[in-house]
Every structure is written in C-alpha cells, then in structure tokens.
Amino acid sequence: MSIRLDLARDSGLTLSDALSVLLPTPAQDLSDLPRTTEMVQPFKPFHDHFADQGFRCAHASDARCDDVILFLPRAKTQARGFLHQACQRASGRVVVDGAKTDGIDSLLKEVRKRVPVEGPISKAHGKIFWFAADAQAFSDWAMSDMALVGGYRTVPGVFSSDGIDPASELLIAAMPDRPGGRIADLGAGWGYLSSRLLEREGVYSIDLVEADHAALECARHNVSDPRARFHWADALRWAAPEPEDTVVMNPPFHTSRAADPALGRGFIAAAARALAPNGQLWMVANRHLPYEAALEAHFNRFEELGGDARFKIFNASRPRRRVGAS
What is the DSSP letter of 153? Predict the structure, then answer.
C-alpha cells in the first residue's frame, strides 16, 4: 500500500469498495485495493501498469462512486480541477495524497478554508488528508475547456500548456521543405510539430503518438487535417502501421521531477524501429542530455545541425536495426 494511505487507514480512514483513484502512478503500491477499484489515469504507461494488475482503468471518468482518492499532480490548476471533479463524483470521502514538492501544503491550506479536514498525516516528504465530499465547496475550481494559446488549444497539465515550446520551434525551423511522405511524431503533445509539418510539401500521412490522453485530445482539435492519424500510446512500445520515412520528436526526459536520459534513449530506439531502411530522424533535445551514443548505436549516420545555447538538433538516417532494438 502507498505508505501515507496505509497510515491513514491505520488512523481510522475507511474506504468503500465503490472507490475511484485519480492519477495513480506506479510509485504508489495499490495492489491490496479491491480489483473493482476504478483507476483514472490519462498517461498511457501508468494506465497500462494498473490495467496489467487487473484493475478497471479509464483515461477519464465522471461516474458516481462512494469515495475518491486523488494523488496530487504538479500543475496547480490541474490539481484544483481534479479535486473539484472528485467532489462532483463522490458521495462519501475525498482523500488527497501528495508530495511537498507538488504543492500539498498550499492545497491543504486552501481546502481547510472551505471544508473541515481530517488528518492530515505527514510522512515521506508529503501529506495525506481527507474530508467529506462537498459538490459546491470547490465549484470555482472546475477546469475550464481548452484554452487558446498562440492559436492552439491546450489544457492545464499538458506539456507546454502556456505556449509553443521553443525547442519545437527550433526543430521545425531546421527541417527541410519536403520532410518526407510518411511521418511519425513521437511524443506529439498537443500537435504543434505535426500541424506545422502538414503545411509542407509531399506529406501524405502523419502519425501522432502521444501518451497523455488530454494532450492528444488537444491535438485532435489543433490538427484537423485528414492525413493525420492519432494514437494514444506509449511511444516506447508503439508499432508503426507501416515503415515511416521520417520520425520527428522533441522527446520527454522525465516522468517525475528527476531527469531520466534513458527515456530519451528509448525514444531514439523506438524511432529506429519505426523507420524504413532509408528513413531519417529529426530530433531536438536539451543541450546537456547525452544522446549521441544512443544515436550512434541505432543509426548509421547522425549529425548535429545547430540549435542554440539551450537546445541541440540532430538529424540521423539509415537505422541500424528495425526489429528488437532497445
């Protein structure tokens, strides 16, 4: 069991079997919860983690339930929105668990101004607290519909939700006027790179692969071209429907606060698998991240093509292996 949730239950918190858990991650061991528990997780790798354990899983839900556990996300607006959603759905308790670095202390102060709070319990650099669900107390915290940012639609919590990512702008500026016929955009986010590539010559299909369901829904609004195909998938495991001529990507380098260059290396391996024998990869990355060895391992040729003080752009071609690369 998640350590703080375990302590809360030892302190008298009782939970119904009609339970929904919002934004659980593999960092929380929830294996002793009933398999009737609904896990709501829009991030595909985490969603699949709990599905593999036999839980009912969804990327979103508005179904009524007795109790809700919310694992706090980092984005403040997103956290408030999910807490409002929890109160709309629950007839019993709402439990909130989060790390100090994700803003649990400030959220607790705000919640205490609106409803009586039980707990809180502090442990492992975080807190857990709970309260009786109140459908009206947090009505002003409801997440609004998609917002327009530079002409594109985004929502709180997705990558680069408040503007076009400068690394992606650098990458699209470096790419050729004819980027390729079949293109895959790995980690497509809300669709900036794909929308710009579809403005160029010779593109007849583009696969947008994105693990965050909320970001992918934004991409559906931002990329309405019929040549676009949308895949809610973990890019590290996604299989291209046919060999791609080009892969473009601005890969993530963390799923938590800690940087994890292995994630970017996994994207490079996935790009090599997706490409045709003469295909090419266009990639932008933070300058300090060491991706050169992975590019050399998976491609016969690669070069750095400029960038700036913060970001570097790579072009790689002729993947060494298309099956079984890792």
Answer: E
Q: Give yes or no on whether 3-141 and 147-319 have one common fold.
A: yes
The token pair at 277 is: 């024998």
* CATH number of the 3-141 domain: 3.40.50.150
**Domain spans of the chain, in order of start:** 3-141, 147-319
Provide the CATH number for the domain formed by 147-319 in this structure: 3.40.50.150
Q: What is the pLDDT of residues 122-164, one digit of tens each?
A: 999 999 999 999 999 999 999 877 677 778 999 988 988 888 9
> pLDDT tens-digit profile of 50-88?
999 999 999 999 999 999 999 999 999 999 999 999 999
Other beta carbons less than 10 A from residue 121's beta carbon: 20
For 82-134, the DSSP string reads HHHHHHHHBSSEEEEEEEGGGTHHHHHHHHHTTS--EEEEEETTEEEEEEE--
- Helix (H) / strand (E) containing 137: none
**Partners of 313 in the β-ladder:** 284
**pLDDT band for position 325 (cuts 50, 70, 90):** very low
Among the listed residues 109, 41, 45, the one whose alpha carbon sits nearest the alpha carbon of residue 71? 41
Q: Name the DSSP class of 146.
A: P
CA atoms within 13 A on the CB side of 204: 3
**Cα 300 from Cα 284, distance rounded (Å):** 19
